[in-house]
Amino acid sequence: MNAPYRSAAQVPCVHRLKVRLEGTKPPVWRRLVVPSDITLGSLHDVIQSVFGWRDAHLHVFVDRSGVQYAPPVDIGVPAFDEEETALADVLPRVGDRLDYTYDFGDDWLHRITVEEVRPAGPGERDVPLCTGGRRAMPPAEDLGGSWGLAELLDRYEAEERPRATVVRRAGGERREYDGPYDEVLARLHEEGFDPAEFDPAEAGRALAGIRLRRTAGTGRAKHDGPSGRPVPSGTYHCECGEPHRLSGDTPDGPGVGELPSGFFEAEGFLLPAVRLPGEAELARAVRGVPVFMAAVRLGRWCTAGHGAGSEGRKMPAGQPRRVKGGRELTPKGLLRPVLARQAIEEAELWRIAPEDWGDPDERSARLAKVRSALDMELLNLPWEWALNCGFVEVEGNRAFAGDALPDEDDDASLLAAWREAAAGAVADLSLGIPVADGPLEALGEVLDEIPPLVFFMLLDAYGLPDGEWLDVAGRLADGLEGLPQGPARQLVSALLAEQFDVTAGTLELFGAAECEVGEDTYGEDAYGQGTYDQDAYESGEGLDSGGESPVGGGVVLSGDPGALLRGERFRLTPLGRSGLRTLLVQVGIPAPVIGSLARADAGELLAALASFPSEADAVTEVAGWLAGRSATDAAVQLVDACDGTEPADALRRLQAPRVLAAVLAADDSGRAKAVLRKAAVSQVTGCSHAAASMLRRIGEPAGSEAAWGLEWMLVDGMLPFARRGEQAVRERLLAGSGEGQRPLDQIAERADDLWRARHPHAREVLGTLAGAVEPVDKPLAKRLRKATFKAGSAT
Question: What CATH class is the domain 12-135+198-223?
Answer without folding.
Answer: alpha beta
